[in-house]
Write a structure and sequence with these properties.
The structure holds two protein chains of two kinds. Chain A is of the alpha+beta class. Chain A contains 23 helices and 21 strands. In chain A, helix 14 crosses helix 16, helix 14 packs antiparallel against helix 20 and helix 16 crosses helix 18. By secondary structure, chain B is mostly helical. Chain B folds into two domains: about 200 residues, no CATH class; about 130 residues, no CATH class. In chain B, about 70% of the residues lie in helices and about 0% in strands. Chain B is built from 14 helices and two strands; from the N terminus they run H-H-H-H-E-E-H-H-H-H-H-H-H-H-H-H. In chain B, helix 7 packs across helix 13. Classes of the chains: A alpha+beta, B mainly alpha. The interface between A and B is large, with 44 and 56 residues.
Chain lengths: ~625, ~375
Amino acid sequence: MKFRPIKDGRQEAAMFARRAVIGFLIIFVLLGVLGVRFWYLQVSQHDEFQARSDANRILTRPLAPARGLIYDRNGVLLAENVAAFRLEVIPEQVADMDALLHDLQDTIGVSDDDIARFKSLVKSKRSYQSVPLRLKLSEEEIALFSVNRWRFSGVDVVPYLTRFYPKGAGFGHLVGYVGRIDAADVERLDASLYAGTTHAGKTGIERSYEALLHGQPGYELVEVNADRRPLRVIDRVAPTPGKNLYLTVDARIQEAGEAAFEGRAGASVAIDPRNGEVLAMISVPSFDPNLFVNGISQADYKALLDNPDKPLLDRALRGSYVPGSTVKPFLAAAGLELGLRTPSDTILSTGEFFIPGQTRGYRDVRAGGHGRVDLVQSLAQSVNAYYYSLALDMGIDKLSDSMAKFGFGQPTGIDLVGESAGVLPSREWKRERMNQAWYPGETVIAGIGQGFWVVTPMQLAHGVATLAAAGVSRQPHLLLATQDGIGDAPVAMATPAAGPSFFRNPANFDAVREGMIAVVNGPTGTARTMGDGFPFVIAGKSGTAERFSRTNEVWQHISQVAIERHQVLFEAFTPADNPRIAAIVALEAGRGGGRDAAPIVRRMMDAWLLDQAQAQVQAPEAGEQAGNR
Amino acid sequence: MDGIFAQLRYRFSGMLRRPRFDLPLAGALVLLIVIGLMTQYSASDLDRDKAIAQGVRLLLGVLLMALVSRVPPSTLRNWSPWLYLGSVILLVLVALLGEGRGSHRWLDLHFVRFQPSELLKLTMPMMVAWYLNQRPLPPGWASLVVVSVLIAIPAGLIAEQPDLGTALLIVASGLFAVFLSGLAWWRIGLIIGSVVAAAPVAWHFLHEYQRNRVRMLLDPESDPLGLGWHIIQSKIAVGSGGLWGKGWHQGTQSRLEFLPEHTTDFIFSVFAEEWGLIGVLLLLALYVFIIGRGLWIAASARDTYSRLLAGSITMVFFVYVMVNGGMITGMLPVVGVPLPLISYGGTSAVSLLAGFGVLMSIHAHRKRVAG
């Protein structure tokens, strides 16, 4: 027989009432204990805690270090800290904030952007903390404010240090800029080092050498009154300023190159082949980094974003260019090294090249062909047929292996954030990317730097510098020396180790160089006038790639209306017998590499030459002089 | 003239009757909310936006209380097992895919993010009350085993999150229901004895940060810049308040930012610093009144389910006050339990007010001596 519970409601209610009373008594006693504990702390121990509370008046205030300065290799200032004045408001001392802001707007001019930023900052701070309203006041504005100061209680003009880039847009991409620390920076940076710092490097050198530029913060122990106003400084540990940086770039070459672009979109990189020092790194169009330091306005930012030429894109580091004929010297070098050609072997150019057994023709630039050409003439006249046949003999595997040795298809590893890798076509790349087999026709057009092949200007410059240094690769870099403070001796950075030479037979390098010299100096060269009047022999190679696919119907139209329908490039190094500068220029629109890009390279080399004549003193010493001005 | 007054009186009494709120309890809660908002406003350094945001949350809580008070206890009873099951499933989901800073507590339903552990604060006592309601009382060992399992599953999941404070509150809510159901004293003694004996084993399973909190309690001065900082600064705030307090918005400890988390877990310290022992005793008296009134409502409820549920909810309210007050005075370890209806934050306030909604409903359906 199953026991069925009998529920006695009355008895359960009585039981509950008893337990509730007991529970209440226990609670009462325990809360009484809590009350006694409060009595113990607040009455019995009050004096001790009162004393400790009064002693709790010492706050630690972080002191931000001054950011390191940035110079070019000759001590030309690229980034400095300048004293500026800003308008600050202490909200708790303002009776009617809206009226005050309106009044200030009428008096010295405060933009709606500033007010919006100010209002969001006020929310995140306490009411006795002063909040910046307008940064970088002009002298006129300070004067206007001073005259009217009596009208604005709780508003003050406060001095501060702000970052300034004297060269403006010319070094916008390279040096980069600092900006207010945001949520993403907070994750990246060490909070204990940045307690008093408002700005951090966002792009360029400012970003990649943030750790050197920032410095060590100090702190001060401040006694405050009950309203948190500082009474006196008890102790102070001064911050250590960030290191000053000397870059490898030469402002004169950079500026001469940029001017020669005349606003045409493109990029240029110049490297010293002997050590990998980047002498110039240009991306056109650029932007004024000073706009970003204290918060860029909506209108300015929109203008930059809406510009079809994308001024915010660092073309030198991230631009994608079809290298075209600029790859021919590299292929010639590979052909010689692999034993597929000798310098005197000749190829007959008939105007059209056929893969054996196929009917599709690959054209030469000159209708009817260049006739029979050897290696030097193949470079001087940029004969496609020579390289079609060479690439076909080499095969795509050996081709991409050899080109990888010059750095194609991979980031150069330069000391900047966000470098692109470009594309070096290979069987594996195509299978991974497109899941397709490799066709011989694609090998043929790879021979003239077309098809899938994409380079960044930095990558191509690195390749040319490697070739110029007789095949020895040195990693491009931008930091020349660091300096603890103005007046201290700069400490030079170690030169990066050299890789093994591409050339096992030095004569092979000589043959390629002879071809590149013929491009600039030979009677048939594609850049014949480029070296006129230059004291050193220049070796170079032009590249002209179609911007639009020929199968594209749009192109048919473009070819008739637009003369500048090509991406044009030029690569060069000089002096040919002992190269000290290798440079490349890429233009996004032009008629031909020799015609449009080569003059820019020449202008940069002229600037370099001027520098060679003037700079007898070593770079860091010159820099010291500049620092001591 | 008379007609108008009569009509007004009729309207007014009708309004009072409709929500069937227990006026003394409702009055005490409103008083508590007002004190809470004032302390909030002071602790956030007169940040109006923050005070308004908290006010809006509390208003939502009060609306939820009114809504819950309309649900008859019999309906709650019938739903109890399903609500319990649902909230445990949500807990499991949180364990599998939840998010939160450092610990997995939140469930993101895209339109609203909430902590399923808060649901257990209501569904746990509902479930235990529902179960005990069907069993012969006082409960025997068999019932105890079942109740233990009912408590242990969600409590274990929440302690794993890790949220020791909420786990503690949920275990307490189940145990209080068992206590109120008349569990024999000798059994209670036996259980407490075995828990004490098992304490060293439990120590072994605590997280390192939880152990540190217990260690800090024993000797906070040993680590004055690390974990002990909270306790020391809180004690200085409370102690320096003295008998009469420093006055509203005059507390230096929180204004100078020596007191951490001074709008959430340590709001009681701000209150004690500014209002002194007198204020603290009055606040504790208000809490005692709410608890007493809650137990009175429970005792006059119609059936065992309602009694156990109302009693358990009320006694858990005490646990909040005790654990938080013990923490800020350095009597108990630092466990994240808010001061009810005063600490900043919406989740606990809303679940607390929903609990009082249950009490209001039970009060409205109490046994009536006449009519």
